[in-house]
């Protein structure tokens, strides 16, 4: 069996707004292996983004364990958690969240610079991964000068640049037309094969979900495998 890159055990999360409590996650169990690709589907408000934030260490569960490469987030300092996020995880959001003042190349190089790599080395690696996503010609353009699909490819390149064990994506094709969505989907499949990166993709796009190894549905606070 390949190694487990992300493990989630009995994760619970409740939001309280004044007297009202919203029990969003009621005991989530999930193991993700090296190179495994899963989709998470579910109704709006079912807790998909909440779950992704907890898996990525951006938010804390009330109880339960999230482990990345055998290290539990709950046992890490904020500093260590940031380091794990930078070195072992990649993130792609529905809206690309690229830095507007920086070029595509600089945006992609950013996680490497944060990890302490020298500019020359970071630029070289960033240029290679931009080439992989077919954007060599757009390297010096700023996000505002790129199309929606191109921006999302830059965001994917940025998520992959430090060769993370697992990439978490929230609606990566949500704002794209079907042709662009299909090309992003093909790109993800190719990259996960050649880099053995695991992908957890939250999506409303059933065509995209079906290309993943397994599909899970989040409902009533629980994650249930529905396909694969
Ligand atoms: N910070 C918060 N404080 C209080 N309630 C919240 C907070 N964040 C989310 N919620 C509530 O938790 C529930 C799950 O929200 P979440 O954003 O995880 O849903 P989602 O499945 O990602 O929905 P969508 O498909 O619309 O993006 C919703 O009822 C939402 O109102
Ligand atoms: Mg959401």
TrEMBL record:
Its EC number is 7.6.2.-. Residues 6-226 form the ABC transporter domain. This is Lipoprotein-releasing system ATP-binding protein LolD. GO terms for cellular component: plasma membrane. The complex is composed of two ATP-binding proteins (LolD) and two transmembrane proteins (LolC and LolE). GO terms for molecular function: ATP binding; ATP hydrolysis activity; transmembrane transporter activity. The keyword Cell inner membrane applies. The keyword Translocase applies. It is a peripheral membrane protein. InterPro entries: AAA+_ATPase, ABC_transporter-like_ATP-bd, ABC_transporter-like_CS, ABC_transpr_LolD-like, LolD_lipo_ATP-bd, MacB-like_ATP-bd, P-loop_NTPase. It comes from the Bacteria.
């Amino acid at each position: 069996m390949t190694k487990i890159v992300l493990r989630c055990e009995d994760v619970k999360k409740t939001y309280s707004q004044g007297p009202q409590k919203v029990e969003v996650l009621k005991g989530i169990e999930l193991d993700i292996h090296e190179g495994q690709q899963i989709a998470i589907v579910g109704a709006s408000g079912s807790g998909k983004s909440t779950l992704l934030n907890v898996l990525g260490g951006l938010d804390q569960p009330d109880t339960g364990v999230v482990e990345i490469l055998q290290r539990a987030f709950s046992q890490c300092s904020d500093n260590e958690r940031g380091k794990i996020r930078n070195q072992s995880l990649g993130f792609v959001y529905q809206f690309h969240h690229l830095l507007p003042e920086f070029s595509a190349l600089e945006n992609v190089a950013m996680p490497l610079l944060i990890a302490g790599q020298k500019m020359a080395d970071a630029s070289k690696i960033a240029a290679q991964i931009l080439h992989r996503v077919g954007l060599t010609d757009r390297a010096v353009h700023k996000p505002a000068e790129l199309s929606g699909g191109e921006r999302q490819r830059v965001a994917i390149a940025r998520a992959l640049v430090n060769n993370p064990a697992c990439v978490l994506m929230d609606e990566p094709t949500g704002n794209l037309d079907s042709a662009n969505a299909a090309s992003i989907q093909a790109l993800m499949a190719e990259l996960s094969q050649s880099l053995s990166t695991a992908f957890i993709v939250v999506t409303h796009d059933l065509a995209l979900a079906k290309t993943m190894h397994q599909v899970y549905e989040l409902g009533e606070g629980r994650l249930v495998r529905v396909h694969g």
